[in-house]
Amino acid sequence: MTTSSRDSSILNKTSPKQNKLLNLSLWTTQLLLAAMFGMAGGMKLTEPISQLSAMLPFTAQVPESLVRFIGAAEMAGALGLILPAATRIAPALTPIAATGLFLIMVLAAGFHISRGEVENIPVNLILGSLAAFVAWGRFNKAKISHR
Questions:
Q1: 115, HSE (Cβ side, Cα atoms, 13 Å)
Q2: Cβ neighbours for 30, distance < 8 A, ≥ 6 positions apart
Q3: φ/ψ of residue 90, rounded to 5
Q4: Which one, of 48, 49, 41, lies nearest residue 70 by Cα?
Q5: Of 77, 97, 86, 99, which Cα lies nearest the Cα of 146?
Q6: Of 20, 144, 42, residue with least CA distance to 84
Q7: How many other C-beta atoms can be found within 10 angstroms of the C-beta atom of residue 1?
Q8: Widest pairwise Cα distance in the chain
Q9: Of the candidates 92, 90, 93, which has an alpha carbon nearest to the alpha carbon of residue 80?
Q10: How far apart are CA 20 and CA 32, in angstroms?
């Protein structure tokens, strides 16, 4: 074994306690994100645009179909964070869902910047960072196995 491969094998080993803490952190983050995106997506899917625009002014200024599409994408992402991992049926979908939600937040930040709505960017950064953490963790460090 060469020095670099030995060093890399040492770096990749984590204690059971560290693995448990990481898994707990990931599940907590997944549940938080699922709640946030589930609520936001549900509102965008079901609320009349006239009511939704009081909370989210952009919804009155873009096509309704775009608002509903964003809501469906957020709802699918929220479900994808929990259901595949919890049921252990196709658990590889969980980090894919997290990656999709990260992408939604990147696009949302760009949209808000283009409209001069910089006050919305911190929320996009926080939610995007949490989604990136879940994607990283579930792709690399704490994969969930099939049944």
A1: 15
A2: 81, 82, 85, 94, 98, 134
A3: 55, 55
A4: 41
A5: 86
A6: 144
A7: 7
A8: 66
A9: 93
A10: 18
Query: What is the spatial distance between Cα 122 and Cα 133, in angstroms, rounded to a whole number?
Result: 16
**pLDDT tens-digit map of 69-86:** 999 999 999 999 999 999
- Residue among 95, 92, 84, 90 at smallest CA distance from 131: 95
pLDDT digits (tens, 9 = 90+) for 78-133: 999 999 999 999 999 999 999 999 999 999 999 999 999 899 999 999 999 999 99
For residue 93, which of 105, 102, 82, 84 has the smallest C-alpha distance? 84
Place of tokens 């995007």: 128
The CB density around residue 122, as the number of other CB atoms within 10 Å, is 10
The continuous run of DSSP H or E covering 83 comes out as helix 64-87
Backbone angle region of 47, left / alpha / beta, with phi > 0 → left and psi within -120 to 50 → alpha:
beta
89: left (phi over 0), alpha (psi -120 to 50) or beta: beta
